């Protein structure tokens, strides 16, 4: 019954603190690491449950709260304990897409079923990720590459695992959806998760410009409505709405540099841990070491500047243009974060010009004092 379900889906001695954090569930600045700590490492379960309740999806789709919790806890337990692609990343991407769906431009754009599918796709998109890239699985003749014929191996695997878990009677929280609704949910989730494969990034960037221009042209400019609904994007075709959701999940998956520096640098540490561990395995197996995976030659700052300039900033600029002015904060964070990494590099080179090679902060300040004389 309802009274046995905790407020945020999981039992925690820190419910008051979690409540305070969840007040920011609609904000880009939510600290997902704090949510993970205060939810007893159930950030994915508590974030998804809170969003489902806030969006009234439990009533709309007659979802059994207990079955939803059962599914979320089981899904969360199938994320592996890897540095980056763990359940905190899934919670982070899920909360990000929830915030993007709140942008006024999308006030009248998506159906409840499409919103359910988008949140579900975000929550499942990296489940059972082993902490290595598709290329590594292919190069090491991994059974997953054999299973999926080297094609979007990780993304296909996460989808299969997530839907397998739904077959468990106790976890089937979509039991009351019609067959047609289940079919649409499955279709949209598959489309969105497969689009998170970075090998599809180029294709998304190719079409995004012309697609958004056509949307802007159709944007309803109903003169007598107030400003907020004035810019809402109305898309008549489900195909177009799914294309927008595909881009949205890709943006959420590439959102680390759009967050506050203190959050962003934690994701950088985690992804570099994961890449360097893969590089260690490639080195000891005599394989070529993948880009950004060699801890002995790593230039973490340069890798982030390259990642921002080549991938993250161009994508988010396209997205921000479509929903102007609602994503300016993301663009501002990208810019200040890139500048911070550029400063680290310039600071590094001036440090190298001093006599010793030590790079400790205290050394620098002593050096500065000497210079002041
Ligand atoms: C926080 O910091 C990161 C977070 C996630 C990722 C992620 N990176 N990637 C790829 C991205 C493109 N890469 C580049 N390769 C090559 N040869 N050259 C490049 C030159 C400039 C930029 C990138 C590349 C390969 C890895 C994923 O596939 C992950 C899974 C899905 C989404 C993003 C993830 C990287 C981060 O910092 C580098
Ligand atoms: Mg992925
Ligand atoms: Zn991801």
Structural summary, described in words:
- The chain is globular.
- With 373 residues, the chain is mostly helical.
- 36% of the residues are buried.
- Bound molecules: the ligand COc1ccc(C2=NN(C3CCN(c4nc(N)nc5ccccc45)CC3)C(=O)[C@@H]3CC=CC[C@H]23)cc1OC, magnesium ion (MG) and zinc ion.
- Magnesium ion (MG) binds next to loops.
Primary descriptors:
binds ligand D5Z, binds zinc ion, binds magnesium ion, globular, 373 residues, mainly alpha
Quick take:
The chain has 373 residues and is an all-alpha fold. The chain has helices at residues 15-22, 32-38, 43-54, 57-60, 65-77, 87-101, 112-124, 134-139, 143-147, 153-166, 179-194, 201-218, 227-230, 238-253, 261-284, 300-322, 328-352, 361-372.
Topology, number of strands: 0
Helix content: 55-70%
Order of helical and strand elements: HHHHHHHHHHHHHHHHHH
Gross morphology: globular
What percentage of the residues does DSSP assign to strands (E)? Answer: under 5%
Q: What is the residue-averaged pLDDT?
A: 92
Radius of gyration: 22 Å
Task: Give the number of helices.
Answer: 18
Distinct ligand kinds: the ligand COc1ccc(C2=NN(C3CCN(c4nc(N)nc5ccccc45)CC3)C(=O)[C@@H]3CC=CC[C@H]23)cc1OC, magnesium ion, zinc ion
SS-based class: mainly alpha
Outline the biggest β-sheet. Answer: none
Low-confidence stretches: 357-368
- The N- and C-terminal alpha carbons lie at a distance of 74 Å
């Amino acid at each position: 019954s309802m009274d046995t379900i905790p407020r945020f889906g999981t039992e925690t001695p820190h419910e008051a603190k979690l409540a305070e954090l969840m007040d920011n569930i609609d904000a880009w600045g939510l600290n997902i690491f704090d949510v993970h700590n205060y939810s007893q490492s159930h950030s994915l379960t508590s974030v998804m449950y809170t969003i489902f309740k806030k969006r009234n999806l439990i009533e709309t789709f007659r979802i059994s709260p207990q079955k939803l919790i059962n599914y979320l806890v089981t899904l969360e337990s199938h994320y592996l304990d890897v540095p980056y692609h763990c359940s905190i990343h899934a919670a982070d991407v899920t909360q990000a897409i929830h915030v993007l769906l709140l942008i006024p431009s999308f006030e009248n754009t998506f159906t409840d079923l499409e919103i359910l599918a988008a949140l579900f796709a975000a929550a499942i998109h990296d489940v059972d990720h082993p902490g290595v890239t598709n290329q590594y699985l292919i190069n090491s003749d991994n059974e997953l590459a054999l299973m999926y014929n080297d094609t979007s191996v990780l993304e296909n695997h996460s989808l299969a695992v997530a839907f397998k878990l739904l077959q468990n009677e106790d976890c089937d929280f979509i039991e009351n959806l019609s067959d047609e609704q289940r079919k649409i949910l499955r279709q949209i989730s598959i489309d969105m998760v497969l689009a998170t494969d970075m090998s599809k990034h180029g294709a998304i960037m190719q079409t995004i410009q012309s697609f958004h221009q056509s949307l802007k042209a159709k944007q309803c400019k109903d003169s007598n409505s107030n400003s907020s609904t004035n810019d809402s994007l109305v898309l008549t075709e489900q195909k177009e709405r799914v294309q927008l959701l595909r881009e949205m999940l890709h943006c959420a998956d590439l959102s680390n540099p759009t967050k506050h520096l203190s959050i962003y640098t934690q994701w950088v540490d985690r992804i570099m841990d994961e890449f360097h561990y893969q590089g260690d395995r490639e080195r000891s197996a005599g394989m070529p070491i993948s880009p950004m995976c060699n801890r002995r030659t790593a230039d973490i700052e340069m890798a982030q500047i390259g990642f921002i300039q080549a991938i993250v900033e161009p994508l988010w600029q396209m997205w921000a243009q479509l929903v102007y002015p609602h994503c300016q904060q993301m663009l501002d964070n990208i810019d200040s974060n890139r500048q911070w990494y550029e400063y680290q590099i310039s600071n590094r080179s001036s440090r190298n010009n001093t006599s010793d090679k030590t790079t400790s902060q205290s050394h620098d300040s002593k050096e500065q004092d000497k210079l002041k004389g």
